[in-house]
Amino acid sequence: MNSDPFREALSRYPSSQGQTLTELSDVTPVLVVFLRHGGCPFCRQVLDQLKSLSAQLAERHLQLAIVHMMDDKEAIKLLSHYSLQNVSSFSDPERKLYELFQVKRGSLAETVGPAVWWSGFKTTVLSGYLPGIPGKDVQQLGAAVILDQGNVVASYFSQNSADLPDWDQLLSCELPRE
Prior knowledge:
The chain is built from nine helices and five strands; from the N terminus they run H-H-E-H-H-E-H-E-H-H-H-E-E-H. The chain has helices at 4-10, 21-27, 41-52, 54-59, 72-81, 96-100, 108-112, 114-126, 167-171; strands spanning 30-34, 63-68, 88-91, 143-148, 151-157. The longest helix is centred in the C-terminal third of the chain and has 13 residues, at 114-126.
């Protein structure tokens, strides 16, 4: 994923602030988080975790970018709830960035199957991340990648809808600029 065609493809998708992932990652490394649909309680849990990671991201000189499948208005409302409204966000309802980064879509078992039920119960009932209206693609799984100068230097791809990144492990990667 570090070829010129990859960088070129990245440059086709501007954020709501007008910058592409290529432009952002040329300035400083970027933690790019691919969300599931906006109504997903696990998506809301990830956003809350990202809010808590702001100091750690600043310490590592990492920008945060969020890729989602919502329209900009819906995304701003959700991101604002977690104080992330100023983060570079990419509306990708056609899932072109998801496909470019090879973020997989889950099977029925990987999105709502028995392996996800207990995590879903804990996330919604015990932790209070209540679901919203299901989004465009409830089978889309999440991911997080660290992008530096258009190259993926670390990644985590969810194996089911409840599978969230180990942020400490992901953020401990060695960055080429260090």
